[in-house]
Amino acid sequence: MIDSDTALERCSDLVARARRAGADAADAVARANSSESVSVRLGQLEDVERSESESIGLRVFVGQRSASIRTSDFSAAGFDELVSRALSMARLAPVDDYAGLAPEERLLSGPPPDLDLADAHEPDPEQLRAAALEAEDAARAVDGVTNSNGGGAGFSRSVVALVTSHGFARGYGATGHSLSASVVAGEAGGLETDYAYRTAHHREDMPAPAEIGRRAGERAVARLGATSLPGGAMPVVFDPRIGNGLIGHLLDAMSGPAVARKSSFLIGRREEALFDPAIRIVEDPLRCRGLRSRPFDGEGLACTPRTLVEDSCIFGWMTNAASARQLGEKLTGHASRGGAGTPGVSASNVHMEPGTLGPEALMEDIADGLYVTGVFGQGVNGVTGDYSRGAHGFRIRDGKLAGAVSEITIAGNLLDMFRALVPANDLEFRYAINVPTLRIDGMTVAGT
């Protein structure tokens, strides 16, 4: 797999070829990935996978027309063919008044910050196999677990490099460790399954495999005997691994491209009190070893920590260059890039600050409610904010968890849900978006 320096050299070469061939401006992004994973089931090795990939994407501008294309052919002839095709496509593309590279004066200058995203230690296949077996064994040892969907362990390395025709050239690398276990509890006619999964850049930041397995087994067993529950309006409490999805919907609605397309339920509500004044939602793309940390965005701007929600209101829209121009807004350093195509928008390392009550205290006055540990379905309308998802979890009776429930639907509107949201004090940093346990009163719950 190529390293960061080689990726930068190839991006620079491709951009130079595009400029010589007639592009008014261009940028190139290279990505390289290698990964190895081991999966086991019922104590036996089931699969070993190894993959490597390298690709480079070119975006060219001819006036206000643009096109992008990607290849895995890094030869000189391949680059020339890529440039020729990209320019031909751009000359036939429609005029876009908002197209263009990010302003040169806004680009990251100087060396990017070291975010400690790469682990020097690379586990070998036998170590991965041992970790996967340990996770599955711990899950199967939980009383009530009767079968296994398997355990897994993996390791990956990645490199990203971005070069623009107006002077930006930076790259960085990262590693990833992963552990998972998924098991089945119960007997025929009453089976339940659940899982546990963790990822981190450094192995020392991962929990022990046995902890992952034990958590998967306990979650599956806890779901046994699930029933439905009567419908109606009631308090709903979201487990942290599910509650972060609510903030994901908020981030989608704060996306500059979504606002520009008139497809966000937050349009016209930028100055509106959307949350309780005590709620703060923070983004820190420069957090050391953060899962989504990055030193610069997909257009070469420095990434900056910021408060996304404070004093009840959102800070504004998360923009890339095109949406900032279209909306007349400032650039915020949120551009994201895949291997090809125009930049999108994404946030990095988002968390909601914890509240003052523990999860038990947060629920103690709930006479009848629902604790959600899983949701499914795509019932979220990004234009209206209407929310309706299938769910499972536990019934809350007199402030205590009182048995598993499933085959239910929870519904509301995200605007109402945000205003009613109350966080507990149990925030942990495990995912790309992290929240504590969340309580929302007045949601509609429908059972069978």
What does this structure look like?
By secondary structure, this protein is an alpha+beta fold. The protein folds into two domains: 218 residues, PmbA/TldD superfamily (PmbA/TldD fold), CATH 3.30.2290.10; 223 residues, no CATH class. The protein is built from nine helices and 19 strands. The strands form four sheets. The chain has a six-stranded antiparallel β-sheet with strand order 3-2-1-4-5-6. A five-stranded mixed β-barrel has the order 7-14-15-16-19. β2 and β3 form a beta hairpin. The chain is globular.
Would you kindly provide a brief summary of this structure?
The chain is an alpha+beta fold and 448 residues long. The mean pLDDT is 95.
